Amino acid sequence: MDTIAAISTSLGAGAIGIVRLSGGQALSIALRFFSSSRVKRAEDVVPNHLGLGTFTDGDVHEQCMMVYFRAPRSYTGEDMVEFHVHGGSYLARRVLEALIGAGARLAAPGEFTRRAFLAGKMSLDEAEGVRAMISAESEAELREAYSLMSGRFDDRIDEILRTLTEVLSTMEASLDYPEEMEDEADDSMEKAAAVREEMRKLLSSYGVGKLIKGGVTVAILGKTNVGKSSLLNRLLGYPRAIVSDVHGTTRDVVGESIVYKGVKINLLDTAGLRETTDSVESIGIARSLDAAHSADVVIYVSESGKEEDKKEIEKVLSCLDKVLLVNNKIDILGKGQGGINISAKTGEGIETLLDEVLRLTVGEGRTAETLTEERHADCIRRALAALERGIAAFHKESTECVLVDLRESIDALSEIGGGNATENIINDVFRRFCVGK
Fold this sequence. Notes:
This protein is of the alpha/beta class. It has helices at residues 26-30, 89-101, 111-118, 124-135, 139-150, 152-176, 182-204, 206-214, 228-236, 279-294, 310-317, 330-333, 350-361, 374-393, 399-417, 423-430, and strands at 4-7, 16-22, 34-35, 51-57, 60-69, 80-86, 105-106, 216-222, 254-260, 263-269, 297-303, 323-328, 340-341. It contains 16 helices and 13 strands.
């Protein structure tokens, strides 16, 4: 393959900018620009050693570090070179332009990792873990991304595949010796049933996995002036929303995010619910209800001790079954009956409220192999459906029908690691990467 180059660090001011090369000509292209007292020729370059020198191209004389990774002991499995230059978008671009002018090609998004996948350095789901690590915004998301990247999730899928392959081999053998292998065939179906439960368990974790990856969306609803915006500001730790005694101050949905106990929470402050003739405020109220429909949890705020508007609460409950009733202003009105008692002004009860949000959504005791990728969930859905058909057909259909379903189940699961993934699937995975990774 040709030699590719890209900037691997974010553009902008920073201490270091990294420009990388990968391919058969990586070292020879790099040495057209790099010089040092210790490096006079390619044989002088020590692999995996970060050496100080000068990158020279026209009027650019940049004192920098260069490191060479010799194939196959590199990220991509090819020869790789990295230049560590002083941070700054202009300098990194100048270095990249020089490398491209010398024969390298600008890398496509994710092409370095794609080459690592093609070289057998990682499975397709491990490559997706790399992308997830880069984009992680919370501890929980980072943990699940690491599970993908490190291969723990891949190991779990491989174990399921090994069992299904054993079942398939036994069923194939029973075609030739149906009477002699009747007991073995029965045992194999018991193994298949155990795998079915494992896949069901894994698939059921996807609901939590989606929340960990994208964050838990929480809509804050209630009447005007009950303290919704004050609650948002308290949760954020700074005054994001305008707080006023004037009714109807909030006219639109205000969105911000926090991280609580390692989980990202997307907060939506909404317009107060009330009857109004103001057309703009009416639009804001309609958006409040839309936010409730799309949220994972609704926090319905009332003034502590005040009589609840049951009709309004029923309207909110019709949007979602995960509604937390909150009594606010307990610092001046005292604690209410039922619901969670808080003071957006003093912060009392806020941790209890956030703990309840997590309990209702991501729960506790999350495993390291929670399903977070839609592609993986789709593969497991198809694999599970085929396996269930095979198990159902065992006592009703011919063994050939069971074998067809088992092979279909194995093929669907194998797509996760990229074993039989189509070119379109592979392209879709890597096009989501940034350039340089």
